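Need a sequence for this fold. Nothing fancy.
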């Protein structure tokens, strides 16, 4: 393996040849009259397509330098298309889910993972990316994330600007160290976030557990005790003890501390405290082997904060800078404390203190963890290290608009044709200017300013999408396939802006859409024993009664009497929605199902564990179903009079769709919408919108069928493009299509910045001229060479008829978001090319 290098003009010309190979092929497909292109199919053979992103991805020039140019312009196309989510990570990389971390290779479409700001995301796509080199992104507190060089990060610069940037772009920016071992000042920060896990059923209160791990004696032979200094006696006021446990406090004068013994005997378990500690494998651990049980590290934020307070109230203190310090002789407890702080987004630093040899107390090292003030914009990236090691990688696409989710070590991370054409034009014109002596740096500044101005104008002219023109967006993005366009637009119209549209492979050669309307819960059945459709792993109940239960259904509850009331008639069905259910009760239900007594008649679904979501959901379901919520707090009990009723429900392992009488929701929906309008707080508004989505949305799945693998691959690309474009239109609105919006904006901006340096003005006008190219290329593909300079604003050419038309009126439209991203990404990639002075190519 060796390297080759080219400089200056020779380097840029090699890159341009690679750019041209991709862009010239892609150009052929642009517009309604674009040509077909034959490309290699993913599974062997060839396929015919007009999808620009698929064409771009299929091109790999033989020359190494040209291949670099091709890969960078492909990045502009695929980033705008939004098809592949975040940049790849190794298969062993971990992703936070509400139940803990899982390997990225074990995720499936539909899985729920942790987003940022206590939000959840759904995995909507999984993409294998083959073997790639591992890059280590190293943070100032020592955390490391392994990923590929095109992994996308959401960062904040030292001057407070937010941006999305790949690893390779960070390296190019010279703001991050690239050499292994180097440590310099850097300018990129990753905002951190708290991870929101589902609440666990903890046997010992988290605060109490923190005290025991800090200064508790958990001996397997003696009693369970806590040692407290004289100034720590107040912690006993905050104790929440397990049922049946009490404590005795005494002052030990010789050791200057309070000894607190915890007692409580149960005939079944003996010492209750010893039994509870043994359940967590903590009974008998000594100071240097203490650890935090995983349930406590993976419970909700409130529990983790209580645990942290308990630890700090014993083995920690607040220093004169109002920051905590924590010490432990247990390496495992140190590791758990670090994870606890990372999950709560608390910046820390850790050191290991070696005691003097033959210390009078102990030779065991002490681990000290200090809370840091942290950086203003998050945790700083201090180095990016190419390891030279290659491994299989994959990436995921997630449902949220910010595409952020939590990866290794609690670090938040991520997830078109027009861009390709614009980027080629910028690069070509920019090279010509540089050859004439213009400064590439000033040209880039002009390009960047023009890009900002164009995007601002796009947002100003954007119009909200309506149900009438949504079909046009879907059809255009599906390369003119009216059948697919109608199917996808109907799916979005059916489930609304807040619903979810997914695509998957059909079991047949037919393409069809399945819409599940109703209230959607992101929790499924508690056991597969409830399935009524074994082949599809679903439980379907028609006209069931509904029991809404907050808390745990215990074996002492009168659930059997309820069954007698519900199942006395053959058509009786029951859906139970509850926090939790005693294993004994669950087994009784399973036995009755196995015996045939209530087979295909019952299903138990668990509630989301986030308290706020849980309470809102229960109250909303009570309105929808007419049920009374059963809870100990309200004093209501399980009986027939509290049951509600719905039309149907479909329950899978992952979610539940409930169809009730929507007339019941009219007032509730109006109330939530009114709150959304008047709410100023961003997070409160988003929470209300999610709540509205849960009760009024649904899930639509496009099942893609084809008669051959090549047709299936090509069709899948078009469906995914159309879904992305339609969703984008709903998010940011629409503008005149066919490149007309960009043409109008560029004509209006010509003449700006007349007082700037010549090279700056050249760069500015270059971006504007390049934004005209999509419109002109569409005309060329349709056999029209007249530039139509006399067009009015919003007017364009219907290439099927050759007539001038108002594009919006004729349904020739583009999503604002897609057009915006195309300009931004093309400008970014092309201006990077123009400021390149050397290209290094490595022979494999």
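Here you go.
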């Amino acid at each position: 393996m060796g390297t080759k290098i080219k400089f200056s003009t020779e380097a840029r010309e090699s890159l341009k040849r690679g750019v041209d190979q991709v862009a010239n092929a892609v150009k052929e497909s642009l517009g309604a009259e674009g040509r077909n292109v034959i490309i290699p199919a993913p599974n062997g053979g060839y396929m015919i397509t007009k999808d620009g992103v698929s064409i771009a991805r299929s091109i790999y020039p033989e020359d190494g330098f040209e291949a670099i140019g091709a890969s960078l312009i492909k990045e502009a196309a695929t980033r705008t298309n939004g098809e592949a989510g975040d940049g790849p990570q190794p298969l062993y990389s971990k992703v936070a889910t509400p139940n803990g971390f899982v390997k990225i290779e074990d995720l499936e479409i539909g899985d729920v993972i942790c987003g940022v700001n206590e939000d959840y995301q759904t995995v909507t796509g999984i993409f294998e990316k083959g073997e790639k080199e591992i890059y280590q992104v190293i943070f100032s507190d020592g955390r490391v994330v392994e990923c590929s060089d095109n992994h996308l990060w959401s960062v904040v610069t030292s001057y407070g600007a937010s941006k999305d940037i790949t690893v390779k772009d960070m390296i190019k920016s010279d703001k991050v160290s690239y050499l292994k071992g180097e440590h310099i000042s850097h300018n990129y920060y990753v905002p951190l976030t708290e991870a929101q896990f589902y609440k666990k059923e903890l046997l010992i209160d988290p605060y109490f557990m923190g005290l025991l791990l800090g200064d508790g004696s958990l001996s397997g032979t003696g009693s369970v005790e806590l040692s407290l200094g004289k100034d720590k006696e107040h912690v006993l006021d905050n104790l929440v003890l397990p049922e049946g446990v009490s404590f005795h406090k005494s002052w030990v004068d010789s050791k200057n501390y309070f000894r607190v013994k915890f007692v409580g005997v149960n005939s079944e378990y003996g010492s209750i405290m010893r039994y509870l500690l043994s359940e967590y494998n903590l009974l008998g651990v000594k100071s240097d082997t203490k650890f935090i049980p995983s349930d406590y590290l993976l419970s909700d934020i409130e529990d983790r904060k209580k645990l942290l307070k308990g630890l700090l109230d014993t083995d920690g203190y607040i220093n004169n800078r109002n920051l905590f310090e924590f010490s432990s002789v247990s390496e495992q407890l140190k590791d758990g404390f670090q994870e606890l702080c990372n999950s709560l987004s608390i910046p820390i630093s850790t050191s290991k203190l070696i005691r003097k040899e033959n210390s009078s107390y102990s030779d065991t090292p002490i681990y000290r963890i200090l809370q840091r003030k942290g950086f203003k914009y998050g945790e700083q990236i201090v180095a990016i290290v190419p390891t030279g090691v290659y491994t299989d990688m994959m990436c995921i696409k997630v449902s949220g608009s910010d595409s952020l989710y939590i990866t290794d070590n609690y670090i938040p991370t991520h997830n078109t044709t027009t861009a390709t054409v614009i980027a080629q034009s910028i690069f070509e014109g920019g090279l010509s200017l540089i050859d004439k002596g213009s400064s590439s740096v000033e040209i880039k500044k002009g390009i960047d300013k023009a890009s900002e101005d164009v995007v601002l104008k796009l947002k100003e002219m954007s119009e909200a999408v309506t149900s009438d023109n949504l079909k046009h967006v879907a059809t255009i993005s599906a390369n003119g396939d009216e059948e697919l366009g109608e199917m996808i637009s109907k799916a979005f119209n059916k489930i609304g802006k807040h619903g979810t549209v997914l695509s998957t492979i059909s079991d047949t050669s037919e393409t069809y859409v399945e819409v599940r309307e109703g209230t959607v819960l992101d929790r499924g059945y508690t056991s597969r024993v409830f399935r009524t459709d074994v082949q599809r792993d679903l439980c379907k109940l028609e006209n069931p009664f509904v029991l809404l239960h907050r808390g745990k259904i215990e074996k002492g509850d009168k659930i059997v009497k309820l069954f007698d009331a519900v199942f006395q008639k053959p058509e009786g069905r029951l859906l139970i929605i509850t926090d939790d259910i005693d294993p004994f009760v669950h087994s009784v239900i399973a036995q009755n199902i196995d015996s045939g007594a209530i087979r295909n008649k019952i299903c138990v679904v668990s509630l989301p564990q986030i308290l706020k979501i849980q309470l809102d959901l229960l109250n909303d379901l009570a309105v929808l179903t007419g049920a009374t919520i059963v809870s100990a707090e309200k004093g209501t009990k399980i009986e027939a009079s509290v049951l509600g009723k719905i039309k149907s429900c479909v329950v899978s392992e992952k979610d539940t769709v409930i169809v009730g009488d929507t007339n019941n929701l009219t007032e509730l929906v109006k109330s939530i919408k009114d709150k959304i309008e008047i709410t100023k707080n961003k997070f409160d508004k988003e929470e209300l919108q999610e709540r509205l989505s849960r009760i009024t949305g649904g899930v639509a799945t496009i099942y893609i069928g084809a008669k051959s693998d090549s047709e299936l691959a090509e069709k899948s690309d078009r469906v995914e493009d159309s879904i992305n474009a339609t969703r984008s239109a709903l998010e940011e609105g629409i503008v005149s299509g066919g490149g007309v919006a960009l043409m109008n904006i560029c004509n209006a901006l010509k003449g700006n910045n007349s007082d700037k340096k010549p090279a700056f003005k050249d760069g500015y006008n270059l971006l504007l001229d390049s934004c005209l190219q999509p419109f002109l290329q569409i005309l060329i593909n349709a056999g029209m060479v007249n530039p139509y300079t006399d067009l009015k604003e919003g007017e364009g050419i219907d290439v099927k008829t050759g007539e001038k038309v108002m594009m919006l009126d004729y349904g020739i439209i583009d999503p604002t978001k897609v057009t915006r991203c195309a300009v931004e990404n093309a400008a970014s990639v092309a201006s990077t090319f123009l400021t390149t002075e050397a290209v290094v190519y490595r022979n494999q």
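For context: The first strand starts at residue 3 and ends at 7.
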